Amino acid sequence: MSTAAAVTRAAATIPDENATKKPKLDFESLYQNSLQLTRGMDQLPSLQRSLDQLHAVTSAKSLGSSAAPSTATNKAQFLLAGRGFDAEKLSRELRQHELKASFEPKESLGACDFDGFLRHHHEMIVVTAIEEALAASTRTSQQSEINALTDEFQVSKAKLMQDLQGKSTPAPLASQRPLHLPSTSSISTSSPATVSSVNLPSAMTEPMQVYAAALRSSFQAKSLSVPDFNLIEASTTAAKSLVSPTLSTDSAEHETLLVWELLGHMTRHRPATASSRAAGARQFFEARYAVFIETKLAQLGVPRGGDFGRRATVLTYVRDVLQLPPPQQVWAVVYYLLRSGSLTDAAAVAEGHAASSGSSSLPLVTEALRLYASDTPTSPPPLEKTHPALYRSLTSLFDTLLATHKASPGTTNRFEVAVLNLLTGRDPLLRNAGVIDNIEDFLWQGQFCSQQHVDPVAVAKNVLALVQPSEFNHTTLGGVFEYVRLLVTCQQFEAAIESLASKGFVVEAVHVAIALLLADHHHHHREDEDKEEDVPVKTTRDAVFTRLLRQYIHQFQTTNPSDAAMYIACHPNPDTVRALTSDLLLDTRAFQVLAGSIHPADGSRVPGALDLYLTRAEVREIVLWTSQQAQSQGRHVDALQLLVLVGDVEGGMVLLNGQLVQTLSSPVQSFRLEYERVDKH
């Protein structure tokens, strides 16, 4: 019994293996249990706090917890002190070895917001960039100065050694006079004294070279006795070569080409009078407007119907582009035919509508247009002198129509007023709204009306008095050249040249002045003036041209002395030519290029660049005068070389003897060295 009870108790003490095993859970059951945990969360209210609320709570907690660490710290220090540790000392030593978590800026910002911090940071970046750029500029300037001093020292050293050694071998000399002007590369055969001009690239820009080639052709034509060479046409061709198809129509090259084309029209007719120049300006504006109509129709894609004649083109322009009502179309077509330079077509249109229009003025206009179209001269005589009755009838109609037009513009045809004004020349300055749209329309009206006046220059002066320079925008290329074309149209050539130069277009101003001078159309040589110009006025004009010419050639005289001599030869005053040429010789020291050289075999003089533009006697006179200027400046070596170039042996001996006497009578060693230099040369 006892044994069975013991077995029973032992069996009871053995745990049941199946009972201790936990139930196995898979991922699906885990997921379901997790859902049980989150069930009911949707019913809890959401907690939303702004940044200000979070900041306030955080600040409150930090302030509230500051007292607790303080009590705990005191208790800890007390317990550590009981065991022999100085907690305060240990804290100080620990703080000394701690790394700073943040760094203060070099300049204290003070209390500022985020925008202020960014602004300060940006300012510091700008200041740093400025300081670095200044330091880099200083270093570059110092290095450039050192390089310039080194180069100057080397040039001075080479020149000094050359002066001390004298001429070693003569420069290569030409055997005969060249047929063409010396090129810019000819300076490489210049005198050894011209160290600064040897192997230097040309300082002339592409426009300078193109215009210089046109001027060179003029001198070549003159030397070959080519008749009727037109420098203005050659300059127009040169300006056209500078206009690239990629350039816009408002570029400086395009605007310059328009000025040359205007001058070409004004100087086309001979003899050149004020009337012929006014007629040329009128033809220029007419050709421009004809191109404008064609371009406008092409841009809008207006159907032409296969008829590309001037009359059909203008009719299409009036009907489809301007979209004028039929009652105004006849007078508008007549006006725009006159505006585009087709008198014959204008007379035909007026004649075709004279009977059916019912207008009393159209038959008179038709008769006047026939007379204008039949006149062969460029500037026909005034209608008042040839047909006074017709002129009085047209004038009476114009005065009546103009009075009505001013009183009630809507009851009259503005194009009829414009046509009558053109044929009578009654009011060259009439500003007809809707007809005169721009300055070119206004200038063309003035030139057309000037045909009925004895003195076209008086009409031009009235135009200048009415149109002030302030009406043009001189800050743009269009405004600058529009004002220049106004001055040229009104035959104020000097003012146009000065306006070009004052706006920085020195190249264009110089060549316009030279072209007008050589073509005898400048006011210095006006053929329609019977009396001589006042001496002060002529002197002032010469002074302005001299200043402009000197300013221009100074840009390239060192590298292109022969081209500079060519421009100097264009001056009309012989005394100024001598003075400018003398300065050119002394400044460039290109004696052999300009004044020629001496042939080593027979001692004959080989001509230089000056001989292409001046006579032999003029060149000799200029060289001798330049030699005197060199002596007065103490440049005895240059003076001797110039005397040798023109074969003045006697003058050279006098110079050497004078230097010898001065050297022997002076104890200073520098005079002896100077004499030795002169003697070697």
How many DSSP helices?
Answer: 31
**Uncertain regions spanning at least 5 consecutive residues:** 1-21, 166-198, 521-532
First-residue to last-residue Cα separation: 158 Å
Structural class: mainly alpha
Strand segment count: 2
Q: Biggest β-sheet: count, sense, barrel?
A: 2 strands, antiparallel
Spatial shape? flat
Q: Report the mean per-residue pLDDT as an integer.
A: 79
User: Percent helix among the residues?
Assistant: 55-70%
What does this protein look like?
Helix 23 crosses helix 24 and helix 25 runs antiparallel to helix 26. It is flat, with a radius of gyration of 48 Å. The chain is built from 31 helices and two strands. The protein has a two-stranded antiparallel sheet with strand order 1-2. By secondary structure, the chain is mainly α. A hairpin with a 6-residue loop joins strand 1 and strand 2. The chain is 65% helix and 1% strand. Among the domains are: 142 residues, no CATH class; 153 residues, no CATH class.
Primary descriptors:
31 helices, flat, two-stranded antiparallel ribbon, mainly alpha, 681 residues
